[in-house]
TrEMBL record:
<protein>
    <submittedName>
        <fullName>GTP:adenosylcobinamide-phosphate guanylyltransferase</fullName>
    </submittedName>
</protein>
<dbReference type="InterPro" id="IPR029044">
    <property type="entry name" value="Nucleotide-diphossugar_trans"/>
</dbReference>
<feature type="domain" description="MobA-like NTP transferase">
    <location>
        <begin position="27"/>
        <end position="139"/>
    </location>
</feature>
<keyword id="KW-0808">Transferase</keyword>
<keyword id="KW-0548">Nucleotidyltransferase</keyword>
<dbReference type="Pfam" id="PF12804">
    <property type="entry name" value="NTP_transf_3"/>
</dbReference>
<dbReference type="InterPro" id="IPR025877">
    <property type="entry name" value="MobA-like_NTP_Trfase"/>
</dbReference>
<dbReference type="GO" id="GO:0016779">
    <property type="term" value="F:nucleotidyltransferase activity"/>
</dbReference>
<keyword id="KW-0460">Magnesium</keyword>
Length: 261
């Protein structure tokens, strides 16, 4: 299976990113982690995976990546194409979904997913395959068992506290209504109740009363749109550790050192 199109989100949010500012670089994907621009890590993981046939890099400023000696290799890779992204992630994805000739499935992840590796991709692809929509998340006990001091944004459900792992699966253009909803709540991604309420009162009530398991909630959301939707509960704690804050980079660099690179 080499027909998956991977999409690596490498754009900039409005305003100044603290990691980019601290590193003295123009955009966050160029901020160094263990001496290497962070985008290089997930790019290498995706390009080396046998299931990935093509990699699209979405960014508002492709020239900053192609002109940088440390990231120019990405543009030179035969599987890579750059796409200029718009104001928001979901809006850009909507454009891709509507593009004639676009091939599926799509696997979407982010440039700050520095710890992404072959094992995580193997699990996600195996469990997402065949679904219209899949979302990777990590349960709090999984993270705290390995990294008890790590702080994440959590959503509480009957089956635990969950944090996003920044890997998504779109099986085909039929996911367009979900991406359209994502576009509506994009600015509230850290406000869990607003996201849940957008998916309907039963899902919101189930989360608030702790009576709805996340796996069942995602499946129910999928059925609302006529889709097969799945939770991929990542086995690796590192799945939800992205380079979002200075303390995240410190932890990631320690993990990379323990891995040996």
């Amino acid at each position: 299976m080499t027909d998956i199109v991977a999409i690596l989100l490498a754009g900039s949010r409005p305003g100044t990113d603290p990691l980019a500012k601290a590193a003295g670089v123009a955009i966050k994907p160029l901020a160094p982690v263990a001496g290497d621009p962070m985008i290089n890590y997930p790019a290498r993981a995706l390009l080396s995976h046998p299931a990935i046939g093509k990699l699209l890099i979405l960014t508002q400023t492709p020239d900053l990546l192609t002109a940088n000696p440390a990231t120019a290799w990405i543009a030179e890779h035969p599987k890579v194409m750059f796409e200029r992204s718009g104001a928001g992630i979901a809006s850009t994805l909507m454009t891709l979904l509507d593009r004639p000739g676009m091939t599926f499935p799509l696997l979407v992840t982010t440039a700050d997913h520095v710890l992404l590796d072959r094992d995580m991709l193997d699990q996600f692809v195996a469990e997402a395959k065949g679904a219209d929509l899949a979302v990777a998340m990590v349960e709090r006990a999984t993270l705290l068992a390995r990294y008890p001091a790590s702080r994440r944004t959590w959503l509480k459900f009957r089956d635990g506290w969950w944090s996003g792992a920044n890997i998504f699966w779109f099986g085909g253009p039929q996911v367009r209504p979900v991406v359209a909803l994502w576009r509506e709540v994009e600015q509230d991604r850290k406000k869990g109740w607003k996201i849940l309420s957008a998916f309907g009162p039963l899902v919101l009530l189930g989360a608030l009363l702790r009576i709805l398991p996340l796996r069942g909630g995602i499946a129910r959301v999928g059925r609302r749109f006529g889709l097969t939707a799945r939770l991929v509960a990542m086995a690796r704690a590192e799945g939800c550790i992205d380079a979002d804050k200075v303390e995240d980079v410190t932890l990631i660099e320690r993990i990379l050192s323990e891995r040996g690179g």
